[in-house]
Amino acid sequence: MKPGETLFVYKHAPQGWWRDYSDFSRKSYDPGIMMARTSMTPYTWTEGRRIIEPIGADRWAWDLAMKHGMRDGLTCPVGGRWVMSFWSRRVLTDILSMEARALIFMASSFAVMRIEKGLRADPDQFPSRPLLTAREQAVLQMAAAGHDVKAIAIALKLGAETVRTHFRKAKLKLSAKNRTQAVAEAIRQSIIP
């Protein structure tokens, strides 16, 4: 995330919050961002906590928000690429009507259109998703369902070494260290369901 290029922090965000968030996010992923990247509808941070029930180290983003007086927020995933979050000092879950959520979501979409229009046209600014072959996607999807190399090879009528080759290529394209991370990254990027 690069401020002014791929990230825009509103000037009234609590002092020091972005600096602290940036430091923490280098060490650990934010489950709320992961949820936003896989979601298609807006949700409050309180709803997000209820859904994924973070514990221990996974609570850092919410704990940090609370430290800076950000009691709740509304996260709006827009276009599979952008996440707009609005914070509040009050719990929003019970006070935001469906109509208000829809209006905020529409405003987020409009804001993203304005941001994209104002950004210089640089094809490298927003890297495209890795292009996995159909076989690479298939082995990752079957691995996500719990199948091992032998079962994948049988199901796809391939040799076990061919399946391993597809895994290796997918890992490289996804910059993953192992198969598990490759599967997680493919799911996060909506390459596989």
Major sheet attributes = 3 strands, antiparallel
- The portion of residues forming beta strands comes to 5-15%
Q: Give the CA-CA distance, first to last residue.
A: 25 Å
Q: List the helices and strands in order.
A: HHEHHEEHHHHH
Radius of gyration: 19 Å
- What is the count of helical runs? 9
Structural class by sheet pairing and helices: mainly alpha
Question: What is the helix fraction of residues, given as a range?
Answer: 40-55%
Tell me the strand order in the biggest sheet. Answer: 1-2-3
Question: How many beta-strand runs?
Answer: 3
3D shape: elongated
Whole-number tally of structural domains: 2
Average predicted confidence as pLDDT: 85
SSE topology:
Layout lengths: L16 H11 L3 H8 L4 E2 H8 L7 H8 L4 E7 L3 E7 L9 H21 L15 H11 L4 H8 L3 H15 L4 H10 L5
Antiparallel strand pairs: 1-2, 2-3
Keywords:
9 helices, 3-stranded antiparallel beta sheet, mainly alpha, 52% helix, 193 residues
In short:
The protein is mainly alpha-helical and 193 residues long. The protein is built from 9 helices and 3 strands. Helix content is 52%, strand content 8%.
Please explain how this structure is put together:
With 193 residues, the chain is mainly alpha-helical. The chain folds into two domains: 102 residues, no CATH class; 55 residues, Winged helix-like DNA-binding domain superfamily/Winged helix DNA-binding domain (Arc Repressor Mutant, subunit A), CATH 1.10.10.10. Helices cover 52% and strands 8% of the residues. The protein is built from nine helices and three strands. The chain has a three-stranded antiparallel sheet with strand order 1-2-3, with helices on both faces. A hairpin with a 3-residue loop joins strand 2 and strand 3. Helix 6 packs across helix 8, helix 6 crosses helix 9 and helix 7 crosses helix 8. It is elongated and about 55 Å long.
